[in-house]
Amino acid sequence: MILPSALMLGTHLLSPVADRVPVLNVEQVCQGIARQGGSSFHDPAISKQRDNCITSEQEVREQLVQRWSSFAVADRRACTAESETGGDSSYSELLTCLEMARDVRSMHGTQAAPSAGRSRR
């Protein structure tokens, strides 16, 4: 019975993605943001701006941890995949994606249970 075992493993691998806030590397996006604000790559303010950005991103991550279960599973999966696909990752971007998905569902009158991830029309 290899097939049922493979299905169980596949299901197990998919569910943790939506069960917890992903760990993102915000260092690159913060470094880029800081460099945009500096007058040169050797500007001492760049390091401070980068550190402020990282602190801000960690604060947003804490918000995500607190609110994670309030977002639909389908939205958590889609937004996590988007935030981890190419480019620089950002908790701010992930939170914005989740809030927009929730708001679109609300505007369209669709409901997606946070734990079920199914929508009804």
Describe the structure.
With 121 residues, the chain is mostly helical. It has one domain. The chain is 68% helix and 3% strand. The chain contains five helices and two strands; from the N terminus they run H-H-H-H-H-E-E. It has helices spanning 2-19, 27-37, 45-67, 73-84, 91-108; strands at residues 111-112, 119-120. It has a two-stranded antiparallel ribbon with strand order 1-2. Strand 1 (111-112) and strand 2 form a beta hairpin. Helix 2 (27-37) crosses helix 3. The chain is elongated and about 50 Å long.
Which features characterize this protein?
68% helix; disordered C terminus; single chain; elongated; mainly alpha; two-stranded antiparallel ribbon; disordered N terminus; 121 residues; 5 helices; 2 strands
Largest sheet: 2 strands, antiparallel
Shape: elongated
Low-confidence segments: 1-15, 116-121
Number of strands: 2
Oligomeric state of the chains? single chain
Give the neighbour order of strands across the main sheet.
1-2
Give the count of structural domains: 1
Q: Could you give the order of the helices and strands? A: HHHHHEE
Judged by helices, strands and strand pairing, the structural class is: mainly alpha
H/I helix tally:
5
Distance separating the two termini: 38 Å
Quick take:
It is built from five helices and two strands, in the order αααααββ. The chain has 121 residues and is mainly α.
Question: Can you lay out the helices and strands and say which pair or pack?
Answer:
Elements: H1 2-19, H2 27-37, H3 45-67, H4 73-84, H5 91-108, E1 111-112, E2 119-120
Antiparallel strand pairs: 1-2
